Amino acid sequence: MTTNRIWIVLIVVAVALVMALPAGAKGPPDGKGPKDPGDDPNTIGGFTCVDAGDSTAAPMTDDFVIELGGKRTGLPNYVCVDVLTTEAGRWNITVTGAGARGLALIPRDSVAPGDSCGGVGARGEEHIYGQFTLPLDVPEELRTEIPAATVNACGTEFAEWVAEPAPTGATLWDATAICDAVDAEVPCGVEVPLEGHPHPLILQARYAGRNNGTATICVDLPPHDVGSPCG
């Protein structure tokens, strides 16, 4: 990996953290702990993509594809995906298309804000299109795999705000059990990792480039079974 790409990664991760924070959201003075939901759901931090209003889909439990593009394509330039993995490991990424000048892929343990599990930011088609894995290896990052989707899986700098899952026909996580584990009512803010309690990670994907450019991103989650749509 080039030095240029490493620095881009570090910058994009920091920028993505700021971009993901809802406008007007405020937290405790030290930046830790759950945000006060108040009366406006847009001020709540640490929710899933669905709760943040960035998605209507149930959490992904298997490999999936994201389509991003410029203004002329009719595709979004930003997508937030809830991911409910049961195994830790690498996320294998395949990016196809043409015309992208910048691409950010940030796996995190919650939306706004959320601790990063190790993302990638690439500039230039030669670095965007192709195959790589998350988390990306950089000298400052000791993480070698993305953990299974549990509460505060990626860290505890930012608390996770836990609520009952949106109606999807199945109970995907037990908010009551999670909040009981920290002696709080549902919903609750959790400031400690709870490895035994499933809760979605998220993947934020952002495209920048030509108006007719596209980036098709295939995410191969662990376990890496034969027959993945990512090839």
Describe how the helices and strands are arranged.
Elements: H1 3-20, E1 64-69, E2 78-83, E3 91-108, E4 120-123, H2 125-128, E5 130-134, E6 150-151, E7 160-162, H3 175-181, E8 188-190, E9 194-198, E10 201-220
Antiparallel strand pairs: 1-10, 2-10, 3-4, 3-5, 3-10, 6-9, 7-8
Can you give me a brief rundown of this structure?
With 231 residues, the protein is an alpha+beta fold. Helices cover 13% and strands 31% of the residues. The chain has three helices and ten strands.
Overall description:
The chain starts with a helix and ends in an 11-residue tail after the last strand. The chain is globular and about 50 Å long. The protein has one domain (3-22, 35-220). Strands 1, 2, 3, 4, 5 and 10 form a six-stranded antiparallel sheet that branches. A two-stranded antiparallel sheet has the order 6-9. The protein has a two-stranded antiparallel sheet with strand order 7-8. Mean pLDDT is 80; it is low at 1-44. It has helices at residues 3-20, 125-128, 175-181; strands at 64-69, 78-83, 91-108, 120-123, 130-134, 150-151, 160-162, 188-190, 194-198, 201-220. The protein has three helices and ten strands. It has 231 residues and is an alpha+beta fold.
